[in-house]
Structures are given as structure tokens and as C-alpha cells.
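hi! just following up on the protien thing from before. the input was this:
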Amino acid sequence: MRKRSSWAIVKAVVFALVLRELLTRLSMRRMGAFWLIVEPTLYVVVMLVERTWIRNLQIDIGGMNYAMFLITGLVPYMLFRQIAFTGMAAIDANRNLFAYRQIQPLDCIVARAIVECLVRLPVYVMLLLAMGFWFGYDVGIAYPLKWFGVLCLGILFSLALAIIFAIWAETMPNIRIVLAAVFMAITFLSDSIFPVSKLPFEIQRWLAWNPFLQLNVQLRQAISPAYPQLPGVGFDFVIFVTLALLLIGLGLYRARRDNLVSA
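and the predicted 3d structure came back as:
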């Protein structure tokens, strides 16, 4: 029997882990499939009610009304955030599988990132189609390749964070609480809920150091070219940060791989 290559083994392991995660996530017992659709929809509806009915605000940002602004920024941000957070918990959730020599902690983190993409990207598309079909919004994407490239960059950036967070959480379990609080603040500073273009120029320059803000702005500019350009926003910064975090994360993983398996 021909011996399989290391790459073939990794692909088989990740595929099996993805199927396992999908079955768990979409199980009827936990109403997984239902909640995946309802969660982002509730976020959008609550913010729309708060902004347009309670405050009576009709915000238009670069040719987008507030409903499209939320869907095109908040839903992708939720994907990026979930990749980082579910990846952080991947090692603990799959620890019993490390008895099998072929399964490594990194495989579990990558599998969870793939699962998040498989279950959340269709929801994103469904929400856009619903806004276009039922409510008559313009949901066309002006630059599809740019939009897809930014989305892939955001997924890779979030995966790098997930690797670092997973290793960090193994040595400091309580860091999960701190990171949850930090990400709650980041949500409001990432052009996801509140349009950063409405803030003073100097504040925009400081907030541009946030990679999530850069990703959101570029996603919206790929959809609507009239979306405001913020100072310091561009591909170079996010690419550099993503590559740096990937190198750091993989370096930490290599140094602590045996500890992660035996912990």
C-alpha cells in the first residue's frame, strides 16, 4: 500500500474535523442552523430600530443607507470575530482527539475557521439577497474581485489571531474574558455599527490602526465606490499585519506544540 504524503494526511484530517464541526454546529438539538441565520439578522434589526425609529436618524454614508451600511460591515465583522474566538477554543474542544497522532492542534483551529466561513458566508449572501429582493435595495458589488480579496484577507487575519489566542488561552485561561471585553469595544471602533467617517479627522487617523476598520472600509468601497475614504486605509497595512501575526502565531505554535497536545 502506497504511503500517503504529509499534505494528504493534513487534508484528510482537516476535512474530517470540518465535517465533525458542521454536524455539531448544525445539530437540531442545539438549533444551530436556525441561530446562524437569526443572530446576524437580530443584530441588524436591533440597530436599525434603535437608529431609525427611536432616534429618528436617517443616515446616508457614501450612497449607502444605514441598513446596507450595517449588513455590509457588521456581518463580515461577525465572521472575522467568530473565526478568532472559535479558533481560540478549538484546542480545548478537541483535546480528546489528540490521542490520534495524525491530529494536531493547528488542524482543529483551521477546521473551525473553515466551518465559520461555510456557515456564515451563505448567511451574508442571503441577507444581501433579501435586502435586494424584498426591500429593493441596490446590493450590487462594484468591484467583486476586490471584495473577495478583502474578505479572504480578513479571514486570514482572523485565523492568525485565532492561532495566537489559542496558544495564549492555554497558558492564561482567563484571557478569554479580557479578549471578549476588548472585542466588544473594537466592534464600535471598526466602522461596523457607527460610521467612523463622521468623526473628526484626527480621530479617524488613530482609529485607522485598527485592521478590522481597514477591512470594513475596503469591503464597503468594493461595494460602493462612493464610500468615504478614511486616512491611512489601504491594503499594505493589513497585509503586513496579517503576515506578521501569521509568522508570530506559527512560531509560537511550533515552540509550544508539544505542550498543547499534552496539556
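The mean pLDDT is 83.
The longest strand covers residues 60-61.
cheers
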